[in-house]
Design goal:
Strand content: 25-35%
CATH architecture of the largest domain: 4-Layer Sandwich
Order of helices and strands: EEEEEEEEHEHEHEEHEHEEEEEHHHEH
Oligomer: single chain
CATH class of the largest domain: Alpha Beta
Length: about 400
């Protein structure tokens, strides 16, 4: 077990994600017994307590604090106040989910002391966590799943075979882009662009797909044989892709650096490129939500009228997937932990990386993970029934 610093312990009970009427509760090191919650006098069972787990709390009121009593074997042992995100008018017009940094083929995690999974499992944790994330996102209602790079650890043939196993388990349409781990071009690795195109997932460097209420744009920001990203060479095409009457959800692998001298690892897209391209994107379409992976952490910030987020990996702490509910007037983001028991047990263990600092640094704040954003120029409301026809086109 990796040693941890004394100030890096995780809480026994935390609210990890909120939406307008629901929340995800995560627990660890609780006594055995039946865990439940009481909301507005109604008792609901969440499942067994014990070492670590996650469950959804429903029936919350939108846009305000909700008192929730948590029970063990029917007795209240603690309470939480959960502030939900506001409801946006009308039903969601489309739901999009993202996963990133799968690192299929990775055997262990950690910077100074590598952690390896113990016990016997039918699949290694990177594939198991990616499959669980996709299942949970589909159950959430996602119409489309976007995989934002670092699909494989080193682009080896057996790792791409694991990707095929993942794809075989997904029941909704998929779009994928490569990440730097897919394009290192190490001995024996396969060409990521060719592998994705062969599977019908990556026909162009920039892809667009219009759904009711939102345009999805994905772009390849990889720099062959390097970890950092680049974006200036596709700036004109990217600005043309986001130039739409629809708001845009722009999905990348590399984050856009905010400082001339990067302050975190890994390196993203240098600010000297990112700043000018970002200015052009906002000028082309003020209604943007830009989300990346790569950093394995959760963060959100505003840039003029655009929201820019980073979303963590599926396979290390906290182990997450992201959902985006597009409404006529705005969009909601929620980042949830992968709740499958063997996955959350592994991901919780990896909080101990870097002496436990990883467990404090990577999750971000709840506002980095869950929020509602209002567009500056909401589009007309199309029918929700048009989603399936658009995806099947």
């Amino acid at each position: 077990m990796a040693p941890t610093l004394p100030f890096t312990g995780l809480p026994s009970l935390e609210v990890f994600a909120v939406e307008d009427r629901s929340a995800q509760l995560v627990w660890r090191d609780l006594a055995d017994g039946e865990l439940g919650v009481v909301v507005d006098g109604r008792h609901s069972t969440l499942g067994p307590g014990g070492r670590v787990g996650a469950a959804e709390i429903t029936g919350l009121e939108p846009g305000r604090p909700n008192r929730v009593d948590v029970t063990l074997d029917g007795r209240v042992f603690t309470s939480r106040t959960i502030t939900t995100t506001p409801s946006l008018p009308g039903p969601p017009l489309a739901r999009i989910a993202t996963i990133s940094d799968l690192h299929l083929g990775e055997a262990g995690f950690g910077l100074f002391k590598e952690m390896r999974e113990s016990g016997t499992h039918d699949r290694e944790y990177p594939l198991r966590c990616a499959q669980a994330a996709a299942r949970e996102a589909t159950a959430w209602g996602a119409d489309l799943l976007v995989i934002k790079g670092d699909i494989t650890e080193l682009g080896q043939p057996d790792q791409w075979e694991q990707f095929d196993e993942l794809l075989d388990s997904i029941t909704i349409p998929v779009v994928a882009i490569p990440g730097n781990h897919d394009t290192f071009a190490k001995p024996g690795s396969l060409d990521a662009t060719e592998e994705l195109r062969r599977r019908g997932l990556f026909p162009e460097t920039i892809q667009t797909r219009d759904l009711p209420g939102v345009r999805i744009v994905t772009a390849d920001t990889t720099t062959p044989r390097h970890t950092w990203g680049r974006i200036r060479h596709i700036a004109d095409s990217l600005c043309a892709a986001v130039d739409s009457d629809l708001p845009v959800l722009l999905l990348l692998h590399h984050h856009l650096e905010t400082h001339h001298y990067p302050r975190i690892w890994p390196l993203g897209t240098p600010k000297r490129q990112a700043a000018s391209v970002l200015a052009g994107l906002v000028a082309a379409n003020p209604d943007l939500l830009i989300s990346s992976g790569h950093t394995h952490r959760n963060r959100a910030r505003l840039h003029e009228s655009a929201v820019i987020t980073e979303v963590g990996a599926t396979k290390d702490h906290p182990g997450v997937w992201a959902g985006y509910a597009a409404h006529a007037v705005g969009i909601r983001q929620v980042v949830r932990r992968v709740a499958e028991p063997t996955c959350i047990a592994w991901n919780d263990r990896t909080h101990a990386a870097v002496g436990g600092i990883w467990g404090k640094w990577s999750p971000g704040r709840i506002g980095d993970r869950s929020f509602a954003h209002i567009w500056s120029r909401p589009p007309a409301s199309p029918s929700r029934d048009a989603v399936a026809a658009t995806l099947d086109a």
